[in-house]
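To whoever is on call:

I kicked off a structure prediction for a single chain this morning and the downstream step that reads the tokens threw a length-mismatch warning. I double-checked the sequence; it's 546 residues and nothing unusual in it as far as I can see. Pasting both halves so you can look.
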Amino acid sequence: MTRPTPVPDAPWWQGAVVYQIYPRSFADSDGNGIGDLPGIIGRLDHLAGAEGALGVDAVWLSPFYPSPMADFGYDVADYTDVDPLFGSLADADRLIAEAHRRGLRVLIDWVPNHTSDRHPWFTASRSSRDDPKRDWYVWRDGAADGGPPNAWRSTFDREREGSAWTHDPATDQWYLHTFAVQQPDLNWANPEVEAAMLDTLRFWLDRGVDGFRIDVVQCLGTEVDRPAGAEAWPLDQDWPRGREIMRRVRAVLEEYDERVAVGEVYVLDQRRLASFLVEGDGLHMAHNFVFLRTSWSAEAFRRVITEFERLAPPPAWSTWCLSNHDHSRVATRYGGDGRGPERARVAATMLLTLRGTAFLFQGEELGLPDADIPPEAVVDLDGRDPERAPIPWEPPSAAGPGAGFTTGTPWLPLVDEAESLAASVQEDDPRSPLALYRRLIDLRAATPALRRGGQRMLDAGPDVLAYRREGAGETWLVALNFASRQRRPDLSGVGVADGTLVLSTDPARREGPLDLAGLRLGPDEGVLIRLGAPGPSDQGPAPARR
């Protein structure tokens, strides 16, 4: 069954392409080796508003708030300012304005589960059991044996961090931290905490941000005092109170025009994930980590996509991503047998042609693999340095060891392939990963069927993921070979015999009229075919949007 096509006045985020920027690693303007907001401003033309731009619709910025950087910004010391490492509030205002001038929406990270232990709220909270902010965090007496209140374990590096509770000798109680010891959990059962945190949303909404990516939504609303028999505390907690908190967040966003909430809902059960979306009064979108963690298999991806569509019918909306700052890059994660570059191209085609909103992590458009981080260069407390390596904008042979990211020493080593994968090297290469991403995003923007059209999964035989996209009088076929050998897909279910090959992940494949019965997919090849009579979309790359 084909899913219905959304109405023409659907919100801007439905079908959008959102590009995640990890500020430390995007672009450094002052030579200290750490990316910053002015650096981002200087590279916005890579994303939108310029000839040959990638053409994305929005950016999502990982945290740039003041922070001791125990968790590189996810330990927030002030929700309403900018860390001097990244610039100033004036720089944030200018970034928002410059993005908007290019037609880019701006989403920023909001971290509501915990603060830094150096946040003034926590400094006050731990000062005394009688302090007015004592109940802003989760404090409990220890167990009868003198140990922590329960057996919950910290999410980060459990062997090293151990308990999710830390004893504070000054007041002889324990505070809860889902993550690092420097990240005490806020007590959302306290109305004062809720009011203060919702006001931090209004602070940024008033400055013009278009929405928020909300960190670890499933952790909100912790029920510490319910019976707890588990020896460990799973990451995908999903407390009932968290749904109500998201409703309050949505109510704040409704005070403004066209603002959006995207949840990092790290649950590995799509029924639970869908439940955050089907009610329609909380999150607009939620990242699907079942999809992100799926193995390289057409059958596995088909199961995940089909299940989510069944569990989350309209008006719920799909959100697809395959990488972010916490997960190994696609070219590495799916490239253990040396097929990473080819599979990354297939993955890009899938991501950008599925019905839903697509999230890209910076550098994926360049085909970057994970960086090799020697032991002496490791800085992250949870092993996520390889995917966070800085962007190579220029080849090191021309720009020096900073590869156009910085004139100084990068805070993390760059990928070994920086010379060949640098953005400037790919700029005019029609066979490059960057060219493929530009083409896919332009086609998506110019083709209603691909942006918001209906979708029907097809059974095309072993190792082939295939689906139809329909809308505005057009029908498109996507066929993706997940095997490292040639496959002949069974396209008898398509309903037509001919089409026009508009795009292939293999740069050597000739585009043009095609007999579907004779189609052979090369090893790790994906194709995009317009079914029926040739039309404007068949004449090479779609026109740029801006």
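Update from on-call: the warning came from a stale cache, not from the record. Cleared it. Sanity check on the structure: Residues 1-7, 535-546 have pLDDT under 50 and may be disordered.
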